[in-house]
Design brief:
This protein is an alpha/beta fold. About 30% of the residues lie in helices and about 15% in strands. A 6-stranded mixed β-sheet has the order 5-9-10-8-6-7, with helices on both faces.
Length: about 300
């Protein structure tokens, strides 16, 4: 596909810290050359990923592999916990939201302020019609307070990344010409781990059915997995020993989750501290845009 960047999009990319060396009126995404802006970003987020080996790879479609069932970790019961709601695989959108809001299946429910189901276009009693699904890792302190994924500095960077793709949050009231809202944003975990620690495998396993049902109801055309734990959760049944593969080795390929193409990239919180990988993240976005059957739907 071709990527026609206007002045606004170039400004968004500059906000990301990515500079385009050449910007003709129409540029093929695969040929788009980017480099880091030399201005350092001094904002230090409350949680960021560890640095991963991320050697650049040529985009390629991952070879089909036989799914391997991953062992499901067990969760130690504590006082006040309850089994996960039954029948998640059959729930409609409102019932799924209610199930997440009232979930007490793991100890994260004892320290959370709010569950974080996700945000997208308002759609009443049905799942919103979206083309894009953005999956992060887990709520942080700001997300726990707001009940919304990707807020704070990492959220601002994500918003700028989306605007450079002519996308914006589906619940954003500020309509922009030529920018679509056909996007839903969520996390693997629906509750904040204490002190913004990394998710435990047992916690990921408890939340996995919620994310799976969200994908089934949303029926996105493309999934963008941001961060190691998002990638591992979505690819554990299709990529053998995915937990042992560095995030950088999962980039540059088109994976699959429930029949939906998956592109892996870095978490915005990590990019705030690792400026040199912002250009690689833009390459990932270009790959996702080239894979998506439709990039922009009329808002």
């Amino acid at each position: 596909m071709s990527l026609d960047l206007d002045k606004r999009q170039r400004a968004m990319l500059r906000e990301m810290g990515v500079r385009i060396w050449q910007a003709p009126p129409v540029v093929a995404a695969s040929d788009l050359s980017v480099a880091m802006n030399s201005v350092a970003n001094h904002v230090r987020p409350s949680r960021a990923e560890a640095r991963f080996d991320a050697e650049p790879q040529r985009p390629q479609v991952a070879a089909a592999r036989a799914p391997q069932a991953a062992p499901v970790p067990t969760v130690a019961r504590a006082p006040g916990l309850q089994p996960r709601p039954a029948g998640i695989e059959l729930m409609a959108w409102p019932a799924l939201q209610a199930a997440v809001a009232g979930c007490r299946a793991c100890a994260l429910c004892t320290s959370r302020k709010n569950t974080v189901f996700g945000v997208g276009p308002v759609a009443g009693d049905a799942a919103p019609a979206v083309d894009w699904l953005i999956v992060g890792e887990a709520p942080g302190e700001n997300e726990d307070i707001a009940g919304e994924p990707f807020v704070g500095q990492a959220g601002k960077l994500l918003d700028n990344m989306l605007l450079a793709m002519r996308l914006q949050r589906g619940n954003d009231d500020a309509a922009r010409p030529g920018v679509a809202k056909n996007i839903f944003i969520t996390n693997v975990l629906k509750c904040r781990p204490p002190a913004n620690r990394n998710p435990d495998p047992a916690e990921v396993a408890q939340c996995a059915p919620y994310l799976k049902r969200q994908v089934e109801l949303l029926q996105p055309k493309i999934i963008l997995a941001l961060g190691k734990f998002a990638a591992q959760s979505l690819l554990q049944d299709s990529v053998p020993e995915v937990q042992k593969i560095p995030l950088g080795k999962l980039r540059g390929q088109v994976h699959n989750y429930l029949g939906v193409p998956v592109v892996v990239s870095y978490h915005p919180a990590y990019l705030l501290r690792s400026l040199g990988d912002k250009a690689k993240a833009w390459d990932d976005l270009c790959l996702a845009m080239s894979v998506a059957p439709t990039v922009v739907r009329s808002a």
